[in-house]
């Protein structure tokens, strides 16, 4: 009977570890997905900032020549 209890305990332990691994994989996939969205948003933000910086520089250059 002790062997049956040990086997049952071991099966429960394996099942718990399997669930833990599956949960960690799910979290990793979720974070990777968020990271992908974050990278896309960051890239878009950087492109917008670059565009506005070039527009601001253009306006500053225009005003400099207009005032001068």
Which key phrases capture this entry?
rod-shaped; mainly alpha; 68 residues; single chain
Can you describe this structure?
With 68 residues, the chain is mainly α. Helix content is 97%, strand content 0%. The protein has one helix spanning 2-67.
Provide the fold topology:
Blueprint: H1 2-67
Order of helices and strands: H
Overall geometry: rod-shaped
Helix % is: over 70%
Radius of gyration: 29 Å
**Category from helices, strands and their pairing:** mainly alpha
The number of strands is: 0
- Number of helices, counting only DSSP H or I runs of 4 residues or more: 1
Tell me the strand percentage band: under 5%
Sheet of most strands: none
Which whole number gives the mean pLDDT?
82
Oligomer: single chain
Please give the alpha-carbon distance between the first and last residues. 98 Å
Low-confidence stretches: none
Q: What's this, in brief?
A:
The protein is an all-alpha fold and 68 residues long. Helices cover 97% and strands 0% of the residues.
């Amino acid at each position: 009977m002790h062997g049956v209890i040990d086997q049952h305990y071991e099966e429960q332990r394996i099942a718990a570890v399997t669930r833990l691994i599956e949960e960690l994989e799910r979290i990793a996939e979720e974070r990777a997905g968020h990271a992908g969205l974050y990278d896309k948003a960051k890239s878009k933000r950087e492109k917008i900032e670059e565009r506005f910086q070039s527009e601001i520089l253009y306006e500053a250059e225009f005003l400099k020549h207009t005032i001068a």
